[in-house]
Sequence to fold (329 residues):
Amino acid sequence: MCVHEYDLLLSEADDLCPEQNVMPFILPMYHIYGMTMIMLQGLLRGCKLVTVPKLTSTMLVNVLDNFRTTALFIVPPIVQMLLSNSRIKRSHFMKIKTIMSGGAPLGILQLKRLREKAGMDVNIFQGYGMTETSPLTHIQTTRINVGMKLGGIGLLLPSTEAKIILPESGKQVGSNEVGEIVLRGPQIMKGYYKNEMANQEVFMSDGWLKTGDLGCYDDDGHFFITGRRKELIKVKGYQVAPVELEELIRGHPDVDDVAVVGVPHDTLGEAPKAFVVLKRGSNVTPRLIEDYVKENVVKYKQLSGGVSFIDSIPKSATGKILRNQLKEL
Fold:
């Protein structure tokens, strides 16, 4: 359990969308993203909140058909629903002013496809944060067509600080160097309730919060996520970020969704393995996927662990891939 100041939760929800909206409540109310961005923001602004008992692709179409939705706060699996459902047309986006995705990384290809489907008049944002940051620390603040840096999480929010450190030494590094993102600001939690051991693990001695996310920032101050520390695949001493391979494989015309995990390997230690959801009617083989990756990456990043086709990628309510479940398959 994280301890936050209530007024900070309200202020973050209040700032993002300062007007009345019609918003479907399609995120869990118990999650910090749904609680702040939809529930608290909706109550503050007197918005119309459309509750959805169980979100399915058909239910999403019904919500867009029957309610004049003006803002969507969603996660990547719902973005995928918007993209893959042929019943959802450009006309469904006519009243929508804002789409914000959070909870898990949204790939460049998904962003481009969403822009094509929604049209140029919809503001598409991507936010970054976590329960411990109540929830936002970064946000993309411009439209894709006028300067958004695709694949990034944007700029820091006001009064928020971030730096990149080397996980092993804690040494701070500069722009365009990858390390762990650590944060400081008024929205950072006070700590985990009655869990001092956990507090010592995530807080540095000078009060910075360790996120566990790997990333970097460019010379303009735009931040980019490259992976999770705990998810890195160790291939003969080299570190491979699953998100890099997942973004590449999603670009294959036969792939609908994908997740990459590390599996034990006799000579490599660990090897990247891809679990792939194919588009309906596809006849592609695992070998063709392996060859596609081989043509685009160095040898140690190739899918030495193989490719398995599955019906769906297991994910949490906020769209995070449940990699441990895949490792058990």
